[in-house]
Structures are given as structure tokens and as C-alpha cells.
Amino acid sequence: MKKIKFDSLIFFGILLVFIILNVHSSPGFLDSAEFMISYIDDSIIHPPSYPFYYILLKALGTVLPIPNLLWKLNFINALFPFFALIVIYKIFGFYTKNRFMRYIGVLSIFFGNYFLYFMFNMEVYSLFYLLVSLFIYSY
């Protein structure tokens, strides 16, 4: 059985607190409003309609007991890249056992322009980060 590294828990806990403090309760830009409206009235999102993203959004949206709907949807959207960062941390573990270097790698991805943009604006690309990181990890 592996021992839990408490510095990793603290590191990702700090990132999660940063995410919680920066999630907003407004629709955002681009397709964010369309995704939120389709969540409310079960309408079809513009082609290709993103069925996997929509199903995950609906499933997690019914489970989480957060009263503010816009904040809940933006938070769910921000969870996908957060879990991608955890997987990326594990991927970096294949290349280096130095945890400090792994943290630097995760932070350099986290504070990238597009990563933060799609984390805090409701877009399908946030799920794309998670799926690609899982694909690379499984390879």
C-alpha cells in the first residue's frame, strides 16, 4: 500500500481553494451561456452537440447540492481541468521522482493562458484536458 504524500494533498488543496475562490457565477464568454441554457431547458447544444460533456454536466449537476446554478455549472466545468492536473502530476512522475519539479510542471500548465481561460469559462475544452491527460497516462 502506498503512503499518502501530504505535501501533494496540500499542493492540490491550495489549487482547489484557488479554483473555488475564482469560479464566478456569470455565463462567461463564447459558448458558456449556450451550455448553461441547454442545462436548464434540456435543449440541444449547437453541432456537434457534445453529448458526453452534456451527460457529465447533467449527472454532476444533479448530484452536487449547490443552490446557485451558474456557480455550480462553472465549478463542475473547473473540476475537469483540476483532475487533469492531478493526472498530469502522475504523468510527470514517470519522468522524475523529484516532487518539486513535478509541482513546477503542474503550475506551469495551470497558469498557462488557455488552461485558465477554459477552466473558468464553460467550454468543452476543459473536459478535453482531462480526457487527453487520461489517454496519455493510460499509454
How is this structure best described in words?
It is built from 7 helices and no strands. It has 139 residues and is mainly α. The chain is globular and about 50 Å long.
Question: What is the topological layout?
Answer:
Blueprint: H1 6-22, H2 32-41, H3 51-63, H4 69-95, H5 99-110, H6 113-120, H7 125-138
Helix pairs in contact: 1-4, 4-5, 4-6, 4-7
Q: What is the helix fraction of residues, given as a range?
A: over 70%
Give the count of helical stretches.
7
Percentage beta strand: under 5%
Largest sheet: none
Radius of gyration: 16 Å
Basic shape = globular
Mean pLDDT: 82
Summed up, what is this model?
Helices cover 73% and strands 0% of the residues. The protein contains seven helices and no strands.
Task: Write out key terms for the chains shown.
7 helices, mainly alpha
